[in-house]
Amino acid sequence: MIRSNLVALAVAGVLLCLWEGGCRFFGVPGFILPPPSVIVVTAVMKAPLIAPHAAVTFLEIILGIALALAVAVPLAMAMFAMPAMERALAPFLVASQAVPVFALAPLLVVWLGYGIASKVFMAGVIIFFPILVSLLEGFKSCNRDFQTLFRLMGGGFWKTMTLLYWPWALPHFFAGLKVGVTVATIGAVIGEWVGAQQGLGYLMIQSNARLKVDLVFAAILWLSIMGLLLWGFVGRLEKRVVTWKNNPM
Fold first, then answer.
1. Which CATH architecture best describes the domain 55-88+101-242?
2. pLDDT higher at 2 or 231
3. What is residue 244's three-state secondary structure?
4. What ranges do the domains of the chain cover?
5. In percent, how much of the chain has pLDDT > 90?
6. At what angle do helices 2-26 and 36-45 cross, to 10 degrees?
7. Is 83 helix (H, G, I), strand (E, B) or coil?
8. What pTM was computed for the model?
9. Using CA atoms, how far apart are residues 172 and 132, in angstroms rounded to an integer?
10. Measured between alpha carbons, how far is 159 from 136 in angstroms, rounded to an integer?
């Protein structure tokens, strides 16, 4: 683990050095591509400006995650319990993911307004599918011998779901949740690009229009850090919940 982390840090360091050196050596104007050192300085010095926008985007992401979980988890359980429902809904769910998010964003702004609701819904749409698919596949992958044992012991559907299917599917669920939280920023920011008065996406659009590219990259840096923090939080939560995965017998 430590070795892999060191390798990742080394690769990142080399890429940043190449970026920094290339900008300095070729004299690339800052309004086209600022070097990493300028981006970091801007991210720190402009923190009082960026932080309120980051807080709005973070709230949109958290609410989007909650919305996606509230819909995806019950739907995955219902689709698993009723295969006919899965067969009926699967084409529509897949088709919904084939629609570009940029096509949905303007419609959501028209329907839900320029406030936080359209951004939360957009983030929830992006997070929803990986959670649903991962959890459903986790239920389906349950060992058939264990299912037979529960039936022989007289376990009903809900008891089997609670004591067998859910524990079995938890690693799949957290895998989908990790994917979801890392792409949640996409939905929130795209919603802010289309129509917003605050948020990191709004800040990017305004900064780009003024050729403040360093501030655009600083906002992206903050957004990346938020995604990494969410991914790390879900990873830690998984280790606490799925204890048998980390301590195999």
1. Orthogonal Bundle (1.10)
2. 231
3. helix
4. 55-88+101-242
5. 45
6. 100
7. helix
8. 0.89
9. 10
10. 18
